[in-house]
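Lab meeting notes turned into a lecture example. A postdoc, R.K., suggested we walk through two folding results consecutively so the class can see how the record format repeats. The first protein's sequence and structure tokens come next.
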Amino acid sequence: MATTTDPLWRQLQAAATVVAAVRAGTSTTPALARVEARLRPAAQALAFQALRRLGRAEALRRQLARRAPPPAADALLCTALALTWRDDEAPYAPFTLVDQAVEAAKRQPATAAQGSFVNACLRRFLREREALVAATDADPVARWNHPAWWIEQLRRDHPQDWQAILAASDVPGPMTLRVNARRATRDAVLRDWQAAGIACAPVGAHGLVLAQPRPVHELPGFADGLVSVQDAAAQLAAPLLLDGLAPPVGRRLRLLDACAAPGGKTAHLLELADAEVWALEVDAARAARIGDTLGRLQLQARVVTADAAEVGAWWDGVPFDGILLDAPCTASGIVRRHPDVRWLRRREDVPQLAAQQARLLQALWPLLAPGGRLLYCTCSVFRAEGEAQVRAFVAHNTAARWTPGPGHLRPGIAGRTDPLPDNPAGDHDGFYYARLDKPAAPDGAPA
């Protein structure tokens, strides 16, 4: 738990405002930005834990009071219930959390009138916790802490693995770094860090997993571009695109990273290949982050702010040898890092995003040179954004040669649903990958 000199009741107040914002449809990023800077780390830690147990907490609140109190008081009450429902998960002793939650209610104008109600509910919960928890066990949303539609979708998409996916999504992911191959080898950094007392382990070809997360400024060489934060599953993108992709005679590879912000995959491509790389991002603020990423790593790419599907607005007419399409998606594979996503997404988002992915695939495929490769990926575990999307594409683009692997990667230590040589053996997020190769032009035919 993050340390702060502020009393626990103030931390709980701040965490509850974040939970309330998510329940109202706002992501944690802007919600946390409104929290006082010194409270922010503690508020994030408490709010993220509460969001990972929000389904259980809301079910418990319904057992305690059928009618919900006003939103601010309900958010504080559910935050306290999420943090106290199991002793082995509680960040503080349950009696301490309850006492401080009641104090938080009394000291805030938005919840002061509900202080006695919050107190009565939480004291009853401590007295009857075992029975109240048992009464919620049959509720799938309480059991799995995901919306009912999300659970149903996973059961259809992954009938053998849906429970493992949900369980992994409720456990915080590790902090994983990518070693800059232009600066050092992964094994050399591993030796240096272990000698310096930084506990870590190798993952994949270029990755290191920290035993305990730490601020990036404490990592030797981070400021100078030695390492970057990137999940092990995301670290597969650049190698999968580049594997066996040879540059034409007389020039460098020409690569496109579509939907590139914040620039981690763009940087990885440049670390592994001597290439001309274009990085596209539709959002100007996010595009600026690509420049920040590349600047720290001392790498250069052509950063363009544009909608990748509006080809006429940005393309110079020269085909690309490789295209990386990390398409916008539900982010259902990274909810262990972003626990708000599960509560912000709606069932209708899946087909809407799938339509956007299809639009991008159709727009970018003609930009690929004969003999080139398009790597399609999403940080999603939903098949509509993965396998089903690619099946529909190749059905209408019969010249595309589809290499299904690695396919859908299941989040967590347990591994993946499809085999992949040299796949990270450790912990990683949920992801989907498909390689689409364009046949080379026949001898004598124009490229």
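The second example is placed directly after the first for contrast:
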Amino acid sequence: MKQKSMLPIVLIFFALIAAFLLAPIAITIVCSFKDAESRNWGPANYMAAIKNPYYLQAFLNSFLVSLFSSLFALAASFFICCALRAFSPKVRERLLAFSNMTSNFAGVPLAFAFIILLGNNGVFTILLRNLDFPFSFDLYSWKGLAAVYTYFQLPLAVLVMFPAFSAIRDEWKEAAALLGANPFQFWRFVGLPVLMPCFLGTFSLLFANAMGAYATAYALAGSSFNLVTIRIAQLIAGDVFLKPELASAMAVLLGSILWLSIWLYHKTMPETGRDAA
């Protein structure tokens, strides 16, 4: 009786997945092969997305911002995770809870907070200007965008990487010290090789997280940044050019990059989990 009663719920669940996940993906893929001008089917939209310098630059900009913000967040999270091991479990849990909260602080609220603090008339900008401090940081430049991306990438990197640090045993450090190794040599030849699968998995997750970000960059400077997510939105809901077929092709290309990143994450992180266990 219980199995029969659960059947309608299971069917509704799969129907919702098909309606809100599978159907939009299928429609996007089909639409990406449709040529709106000639009404023929083919890879014309994909060729336009790849050959057009403007759209190709959007992919390149998204790739570079995602790459640098992921690398910076990954490097900073390594030192933060090392420092967290020195705290007591109670303090460590509170800091991880704070990281969990800040990792969800992104999008429009994050952009608004940065504008208030570091914008042209931000609190810190005016304060440093009144103190005659040589402050030339431009929040609305690519450096500012990379800084904002790094901010919401860093807490996520700490949450993903810290469990893997349990694989680093204190006995290993003591044995390395007895053999004459300094801390740098220990991390170079022992610690980093053990954590390398976690580094690769965390980097792929951070890269996918930054590559697919849209709200933060758009709320910060509108469509001034030539990013692939912003270009897709402009092609769907822009005031001048409406090319949903081209937007679908770019979305498929972006989705393929994100899928590859998540695939790398799942291929590398289980190895780290086994090492940590």
